[in-house]
Design a protein that fits this description.
mainly alpha
């Protein structure tokens, strides 16, 4: 079964692969994929459009979407449901907490206690 650290790394790889598959399945533009993956895994802050997508701020999403991404709004909604954990998206508070925690890597280290208020 391996050490706890090995198990964490396996979980990170599994979630990263799942997100990458969801992004590819919905044809999310290639240049938008890495920012979502590093947000999920390490809690890195993406640009304004993706921050709005992750935070579920529809008006901000529409205002920040470029011509390419405007065509994929439904696809982004699919990715939020099927690619990111609920703790990592859906509100400004969850978005900021996920970044503060250090993404999934931090979540797996700290545990769920850090997300209880969400």
């Amino acid at each position: 079964m391996g050490t706890l650290e090995d198990q964490r790394e396996q979980m990170l790889e599994w979630r990263q692969k799942g997100l990458e598959e969801a992004l590819a399945k919905k044809n999310i533009p290639v240049y938008m994929r890495k920012p979502l993956v590093v947000y999920l895994i390490d809690g890195y802050r993406p640009g304004g459009f993706l921050a709005a997508v992750i935070s579920n701020n529809f008006k901000e999403v529409c205002g920040r979407a470029d011509d390419t991404n405007r065509n994929f709004l439904v696809s982004y909604a699919y990715v939020m449901v099927h690619g990111l954990p609920a703790h990592a998206q859906g509100s400004d508070e969850r978005y900021e907490k996920w970044i503060e925690m250090g993404g999934l890597r931090g979540f797996l280290t700290v545990g769920q206690e850090g997300m209880r208020d969400q």
